[in-house]
Specification:
Number of helices: 6
Bound molecules: zinc ion
Shape: globular
Number of strands: 19
Strand content: 25-35%
Number of domains: 2
Strand order of the largest sheet: 10-15-16-5-17-14
Structural class: alpha+beta
Order of helices and strands: EEEHEEHEEHHEEEEEEEEEHEEEH
Length: 319
């Protein structure tokens, strides 16, 4: 049983009705008066069809019709991708992968990724993957198989570094971790809802766009895109990033059998007139809050003990 695969879908608009179907299973077909309405039914139809894959990712052979605000953020036709999946890696080894310590508050790496190899501790499903993280603390790397890497042109391969992973014993699949040399930061826009957090200790800002009037989860500022635009570029920051490219190229990659596990979406491009600095909540650090609370309680108890001891000492009859 292999779960979490990516399935290529088609869609059409006919007499005001949107129809979506999975190309490899034409029986999985849904319709609605809007694209989103049809799309919302797709997962149920999929599960009804008796597939053993309960966590499918659906992707389309051409761009889905835009949501109301998409047009404003589509000056350049770009998409992003990342890995899905549940690969685990050695947590002890993880500490030596970045130069400098992790932020004590939020867990983000404060220094650049060095050349150390990540030690995988589970076999990897598919060809594009991510790592499991407890409570989303710590970096989310993009791992790709040798077969996926071979799909990329020389020019594309040279846009990032690919650090080989140390695989699990007996697994012959070779994986590589993408290491960007620079990042186009995530961008916010004046009218769009965000979800995410900031850390005042290390300055990290991790967020995505969560606005039903758009179809994109990630956006970059038009002014922050490098000129000329590289074939592949990283968006986000060293802890949390996706790889961006032209929509046509990402669709091409998605149609390959070696892209299994690849999760992709439209990349919003925020025009200068709508760009703003993001307003984000402070990340709570549960472990730290518990530790601080215990420290404060211990201090309070020590204070109280001292006070009581003084009280007892001073109430003793003087000789
Ligand atoms: Zn931090």
């Amino acid at each position: 049983m292999s779960e979490g695969r990516t399935y290529l879908c088609s869609w059409k608009l006919d007499s005001h009705v949107y129809t979506i179907w999975v190309r490899s299973r034409p029986g999985v077909r849904v319709s609605g008066l809007t694209f989103s309405q049809a799309y919302d039914k797709l997962i149920y139809k999929w599960l009804e069809s008796g597939s053993d894959d309960c966590e499918p990712t659906f992707t389309f052979d051409r761009s889905p019709p835009p949501e109301p605000l998409d047009a404003k953020y589509s000056n350049i036709d770009l998409m992003w991708f990342e890995g899905t999946g549940y690969t685990s890696d050695s947590s002890e080894r993880r500490e030596s992968l970045f130069d400098g310590p992790r932020c004590a508050w939020c867990g983000e790496p404060t220094g650049p990724r060095n050349d150390s190899k990540r030690q995988l501790t589970s076999t990897v499903e598919g060809h594009v993957s991510a790592c499991v993280r407890d409570n989303f603390v710590g970096e989310s790397p993009i791992l790709v198989s040798r077969e996926f890497l071979n799909l990329l042109s020389n020019e594309e391969q040279q846009c990032l570094d690919w650090i080989p992973c140390v695989g699990v014993p007996r697994s012959r699949k070779q994986f590589f971790e993408a290491r960007p040399r620079s990042f186009v930061p995530y961008a916010a826009a004046i009218e769009l809802e965000l979800s995410g957090w900031r850390c005042d200790s290390c300055g990290a800002k991790v967020f995505s766009i969560r606005d039903p009037r758009t179809s994109f989860l990630h956006a970059v500022s038009q002014l922050s895109l490098p000129q000329p635009l590289p074939a592949l570029f990283a968006i986000g920051s060293r802890g949390h990033f996706q790889i961006g490219a032209s929509s046509s190229r990402i669709r091409e990659l998605l149609s390959s059998k070696y892209s299994r596990g690849m999760n992709a979406g439209r990349l919003g491009v925020v025009p200068p007139s709508l760009a703003i600095a993001p307003t984000l909540r402070l990340r709570e650090n549960e472990a730290d809050q518990i530790r601080l609370r215990q420290e404060r309680a211990a201090e309070d108890k020590a204070e109280l003990d001292k006070y009581v001891a003084n009280l007892i000492a001073s109430s003793r009859p003087k000789k």
